Amino acid sequence: MKEYVGACVRCGVKIYCMDGFLNGTVAENGELYCFECHDKRLENTEKSSRSSEDSEVNNS
Ligand SMILES: [Zn+2]
Q1: DSSP secondary-structure letter at 37?
Q2: I want to staple 27 with a disulfide (CB 3.0 to 4.6 A). Which of 20, 21, 31, 51 is the partner?
Q3: What superkingdom does the record give (predicted)?
């Protein structure tokens, strides 16, 4: 079962609910994000002044 929920507000990718599993996230304000944009959004809010070119995420 695959139900269309909406589009990522940042990249516009379609987000579906599959068997109760959403392939994205819903923000507190109700906006939809895919996982990729959601991660970037968290990165931007956590370290706004630093620009990391590393693809690896190794927070300690
Ligand atoms: Zn996205």
Answers
A1: H
A2: 31
A3: Bacteria
Residue reference for tokens 């906006």: 31
**Measured in angstroms, how far is the CA atom of residue 36 from the centroid of ligand 1?**
6
**In angstroms, what is the span from residue 22 Cα to ligand 1's centroid?**
13
Q: Judge whether residue 51 has pLDDT over 90.
A: no
DSSP helix, strand, coil percent of the chain (3-state; round to 5)? 20, 30, 50
Nearest to 15 by CA among 34, 42, 1: 34
Q: How far is the CA of 60 from the centre of ligand 1 (A)?
A: 26
